[in-house]
Amino acid sequence: RKGRHMGYGKRRGSTARTGMVSLRLQKRLAASVLKCGKGKIWLDPNEVNEISMANSRQNIRKLVKDGYVIKKPVIIHSRARVHRKNEAKRKGRHMGYGKRRGTAEARLPTKVIWMRRQRVLRRLLAKYRESKKIDKHLYHSLYLKCKGNVFKNKRNLIEFIHKAKAEKQREKSLADQAEARRLKSKAARDRRKDRVDEKRGGATAQDETPKDEPAAAAPAEGDKKKKEKKEKKEKKEAKA
After folding, report:
1. Which residues contact 200 (CB under 8 A, 6 or more apart)?
2. Which tens digits make up the pLDDT trace of 11-46?
3. Is the overall model pTM greater than 0.70, yes or no?
4. What are phi and psi of 69, to 5 degrees?
5. ∠216-220-222 over CA atoms, to 5°?
6. Which CA distances in Å does 206 have to 42, 198, 212, 214, 228?
């Protein structure tokens, strides 16, 4: 009795006690042949005698081929319920205050949100610059605005780009119109100047022949006026 408690007794379930044949060797060889653990090996209980005769891997392969030794299928741990729960969570179910274990900052840090937003906006700017939708100057200006937290999302940035391009186009059209007006007025001035020059040239051509006679008469008229002034002055002096 003492020996049995100390471990000297017979083991429970041993082959000597039950009278069954030990198949430990066959199970080990089958696990090696089928490349799995011994717990995955199934031995046909109706063919124990034939299985017990197999003492080599070649014999085990023959038993596997006959279907007396089988590798048990993988026990499936179904994820269907988890997938269903996750799909509901994506819709916003099971996400109330009672299900939250951390603070809002711990669950989704504001720095992560900032990095995601910046990467989205910068990717869009690089894409627009490569496709020639914006030039390098507008790209640099918008890049700094993104860094300065001007744009809340990608849609706001796209709207700003459209407005900026429209404003730039409007300024360009106004400048072109002003330049056209300037050139038009300059051309009108040139034409007017040419007309005036032509008229002056015609007038001088007409006055070339009678120009000498008045020149000779002009001094005579001047002398006459001087003489009259002199006479008036003498009369005043005589009266005085």
Report:
1. none
2. 555 454 545 789 999 999 999 999 999 999 999 999
3. no
4. -120, 125
5. 115
6. 134, 13, 13, 15, 34
